[in-house]
Write a structure and sequence with these properties.
This protein is mainly α. The radius of gyration is 19 Å and the shape is globular. The termini are far apart. 50% of the residues are buried.
């Protein structure tokens, strides 16, 4: 192995490890948050997560030092709003369907984004795999999951696609500090809904430790780590690795929430994962993202 190849291998190993930690952290936080739903409600739990995470990230990154240009501010605002709506829709799905199923359906958002930017014959294979997976998860049989939950997961996927596009723009300009600002914007978007739904129950000190754990595991830690990885590895590699997230979600649901999936549901998740990984692995060079 040449010195250049060795350096390249070492340089990619760190962001890969960082992304793996981020994915495990997100799914652990998703399992933990279900304990907040009975007390704070879905919107209240989302609000607690983003408000606490934005406070933690502000202390770490000190985003008030930034002076973004108008075009950069636009990307930051859309990135943050997409983050807030993504979290809210995902938690609405999570309150109705198993964690692994919710993550798999949500994955169709970034998968659609990747395929839409390509238009190659092989992409029809990935579309077919994703469609088969979704069809298997639709509420059609006696052991089917909630159709409303599936709809919320799909909405979260749309928001996730926007989060990726504008997160790349924001991260290229300001790195980790953009994560802090984006999380603050997301908190501002979701908080009015959380207050209307949960009210004073969000101030219950008994749920503060769990809420803080969710904020760290689901937002503060993984969003910072994802931003680090996203700007330091090829988009193709990022996409392939992220394809493991539905399986991690299903395993977290099984380990922490005792959510047992049927063989059909496991096969559906595997089909969507294969579509996502295949699309990322066969993608061409990433286009230059312009303001």
């Amino acid at each position: 192995m040449t010195a250049r190849a060795s350096f390249k291998s070492n340089s990619i190993a760190l962001p890969i490890g960082v992304l793996a930690i981020a994915m495990i952290s997100v799914q652990s936080g998703a399992a933990l948050v279900k304990g907040l739903f009975p007390v704070a409600g879905v919107a209240g739990a989302t609000t607690l997560r983003l408000v606490l995470a934005s406070a933690i990230l502000a202390l770490v990154w000190r985003p008030w030092r930034l002076r973004p240009r108008r075009s950069e501010a636009r990307s930051l605002i859309i990135y943050g709003a997409a983050m807030g709506c993504m979290n809210l829709c995902f938690y609405c799905a999570l309150s109705r369907i198993p964690l692994g199923v919710a993550v798999a359906v949500e994955f169709t958002g970034p998968l659609t984004l990747a395929i839409a930017a390509s238009h190659r014959p092989i992409d029809y294979v990935w579309v077919a795999l994703a469609a088969l997976g979704l069809l298997a998860l639709l509420p059609l049989g006696p052991r089917s999951v909630s159709g409303v939950g599936i709809a919320f997961a799909l909405a979260a996927g749309v928001c996730w696609a926007l989060y990726i596009v504008f997160g790349q723009k924001a991260g290229a300009a300001h790195g980790g500090a953009s994560t802090a600002l984006g999380t603050l914007v997301g908190a501002l978007v979701v908080t009015p809904i959380g207050v209307l739904q949960a009210g004073a129950s969000m101030l219950d000190l008994g749920i503060l430790p769990a809420a803080l754990g969710v904020a760290v595991l689901s937002s503060a830690l993984p969003y910072s780590l994802e931003m680090f990885a996203l700007t330091r590895m090829p988009t193709r590699t990022f996409g392939v690795l992220m394809s493991a997230e539905p399986a991690l979600g299903a395993l977290s649901g099984l380990a922490f929430l005792n959510e047992h999936l049927s063989m059909v549901q496991w096969a559906a998740i595997a089909s969507i994962m294969a579509a996502s990984a295949g699309s990322a692995a066969t993608s061409g060079p990433a286009p230059v993202i312009k303001d």
